[in-house]
Amino acid sequence: MTDVLAPVAGRLLPLSAVPDQVFAGEMVGSGVAIEPSVPADGADAVVVAPVAGTVLKLHPHAVIILASNGVGVLVHIGIDTVNLNGEGFTVLATEKATVSAGDSLIAFSPSGIRERGLSAICPVVIMDSKPGSVTNLEERDVESGDLIFTV
Length: 151
Description:
It is found in: Cytoplasm. The chain is mostly beta strands.
């Protein structure tokens, strides 16, 4: 069993709330989404590792962590944010690094993404998992590091 923690503070939502067919249709895998909140101090939000493991892939807008048991967790920051070419993101980790759950990975501005007319919602997906395998989602506000589901 792998506990998956909230990579960012915000509102926990079903993956079906993501305005993207690939994520909403669970084509990448099952999971949840978090509509990130804007930090009260106006600072950037920080995405943290949802599980301990190895940083398999790292882009300014997305990261995949591979847990020691082979579970891959994708955190995607916003929708269509790849088109920003890294603008508005600060990468805080390196590919192939070993991380603990809660380690900082990427800083970004949810407001900055929204000001560009894009969704800042963050899908959190178990790579290659069967649709519907993440269940019992309770919509609620979460803080970074809160348990959001177990696989």
